[in-house]
Amino acid sequence: MSADDDLLRLDQQVCFSLNAASRAFSGLYRVLLKDLGLTYPQYLVMLALWEHGEMPVKELGERLRLDSGTLSPLLKRLEGAGRVRRERSASDERSVRVRLTDEGAALRERARLVPRRIAAATDFGADEIADLRARLDRLTEALDTAAAREASERA
Asked: Do 114 and 153 belong to one domain?
């Protein structure tokens, strides 16, 4: 087997390791979030709103890296569950703002245990988690830059 063949081995793919870790996280989050009545994508929406408060849907999508086709149904389900409220901006009819309801804000207290349980499940220390996040953020930025460069070169 040549060195080039080794490059095509599944166990050599960073993307596969990241995907496997993501699926493992999703499985644990599914169990932990069930008591809160949230899916993982809904949890991300709630985290952003708990942290930043009311914001335009467009900004929320940018923060979560979700397009409107994915975000709109999430918000519709959260609104149906009484967790958020969507309203057209008074100053710009094209803009929709999303904010927490009292029920959505109150859910924050119950959600406090989730990150602690996730951290405990990783068996990583706080420094290791911070280092991993920093490396993943750097990786994401590098891949975004590479994708933009590739797209412009092919245009």
From this structure: no
In sequence order, what DSSP letters do the residues of 115-144 get, joined into one string? Answer: HHHHHHHHT--HHHHHHHHHHHHHHHHHHH
Q: Count of domains in the chain?
A: 2
* Token representation of residue 68: 């409107």
Cβ atoms of residues 71 and 84 within 8 Å: no
Task: Determine contact, residues 41/55, Cβ cutoff 8 Å.
Answer: no
pLDDT along the chain (155 residues), means of 10: 79 94 96 96 98 96 95 97 92 88 97 95 95 97 96 89
Kindly state the tokens that stand for 1. 């087997």
Q: Is this prediction's pTM over 0.85?
A: yes
> Under 8 Å CB-to-CB from 49, ≥6 apart: which residues?
55, 60, 84, 98, 99, 100, 104
Residue 53 falls within a domain, yes or no? yes
